Amino acid sequence: MDEPLLRVAEVRDAPAVGELMKRAAAALFPLFYDERQSASAVEYVAHVDSALLEDGTFFVLESGGELVGCGGWSKRDRLYTGSGDGEGDDRLLDPAREPARVRAMFVRPDWTRRGLGRRILEACEAAARAEGFRQLSLMATLGGLPLYRSYGFVELEEQHVVMPDGVAIPCVSMEKPIAD
User: How far apart are CA 156 and CA 131, in angstroms?
Assistant: First the structure.
């Protein structure tokens, strides 16, 4: 198989991105969460945030015309898709004092363990650096911890993120300085 092509996602990619997210989450979440938590996370975590596509801060990896990985970063004050529709969620972050948010990282189950997540993180970090950000932050599901730790993210706090259906999902907030 050819090395997947990394590109900035377009708004028209939303249906394929959504399908990839759901497929990846349905395979990964049951390894870390119970049945109820997994179903809730597939529904509410594996959800396309159109603002990332509109802002041009979301990447996809494509092989043979199919999406095999996705993820991005945000310059807005929303840490993750399920963080609500609060008034400040669309506020632009101040790169000098606030971290860019790494968001919506998913890899198709048959493409895991090939460095795709790292490629997306590298692209996110480079793009955030170019916008003047000095730090990255994210809210990791338990399945993402090994990737984020290996990339240099440090765990800040374990949290139970409550989904819109009331189900609590254990997650970990993490940060990493952006390399010069």
Answer: 24
Name, in order, each residue with C-beta under 8 angstroms of 82's C-beta and a sequence gap of 6 or more.
44, 45, 47, 161, 163, 164
Q: How far apart are the first and last CA of the chain?
A: 33
The H-or-E segment that residue 13 falls in is none
Distance CA 166, CA 40 (A): 9
Predicted pLDDT at 90: 77
Determine the pLDDT at residue 135. 98
Residue reference for tokens 């968001």? 103
Q: How far apart are CA 170 and CA 142, in angstroms?
A: 7
Q: Model pTM?
A: 0.93
Token pair listed for 78? 């929303």
pLDDT in tens, 37-54: 999 999 999 989 999 999
Q: How far is CA 114 from CA 12, 149, 151, in A?
A: 26, 16, 14
Q: What is the dihedral of CA 125, 88, 169, 53, to 10 degrees?
A: -50
Would you tell me how many other CB atoms lie within 10 Å of the CB of residue 49?
Answer: 22
Radius of gyration of the chain (CA): 15
- Block residue for tokens 């990839």: 20
